[in-house]
Every structure is written in structure tokens, then in C-alpha cells.
Amino acid sequence: MNNLGFQEILVIAFILLVVVGPERLPDLMRKAGTWIARFRRETQRSVDELKRAANLEELDRELKAISRDVKDAGRNMARVASGEPSRATDEPPPFDPEAT
């Protein structure tokens, strides 16, 4: 967004003074300040909600990963309890044909 310079602000103020008049200009400026403040509050609230939602999605992914780890640990404990050999995953053990 472009920043307004002093000359641009002066031109805008002069046009407002001519169009609105000196009696209603202070009230108009007060209302504009209120609108701008309300707009800033709403945009900040929206940004905060988006940040919270992004954080919730990240926490949900972490929770699912932890849940998978707990289920895997439970399966491994069940294998050990039943006498099966315990493996960290269901993949076959590594094989090196040159080792023999």
C-alpha cells in the first residue's frame, strides 16, 4: 500500500473541507476514526483465529503420530506376551547377501 505524503494529505483535507464543510468535518473524522479502529480490531481477530486454526491442525497431526506410536507399542507388547518375536515394524528384517 502506498504511503501518503504531506501534499496528498493536504489535498484530501482541502477537498473534504470544501465538500463536507467545516461544521461537519470534526464529526466525520471522529466517525472515520471509529470505523478504522473497528476494522483493525476485526482484522486482528481474524488473524488470531487463523493462527489458532493453524496451530490446532499442527497439534492434530502430532496427536495422530503419537496415537500411531502408542498402537505400535501395544502391538509389540502383545507379540511379546504371546511369545512371538518382537519387531519394531511389520517389515522383514534387512538381508545382506554379501554377509555370508
Helix and strand pattern: HH
**Strand portion:** under 5%
Mean pLDDT: 84
Low-confidence stretches: none
| Structural class estimated from helices and strands | mainly alpha
Count of DSSP-assigned helices: 2
Secondary structure: helix percent: over 70%
Number of strands: 0
| Largest beta-sheet details | none
Rg calc: 33 Å
> What form results from the Cα inertia axes?
rod-shaped
Question: How is the quaternary structure best described?
Answer: single chain
What distance lies between the first and last C-alpha atoms, to the nearest angstrom?
Answer: 71 Å
What does this protein structure show overall?
- The structure is a single chain.
- The protein has 100 residues and is mostly helical.
- The chain is 73% helix and 0% strand.
- The chain is built from two helices and no strands.
- The termini are far apart.
- 0% of the residues are buried.
- The model has no long low-confidence stretch (mean pLDDT 84).
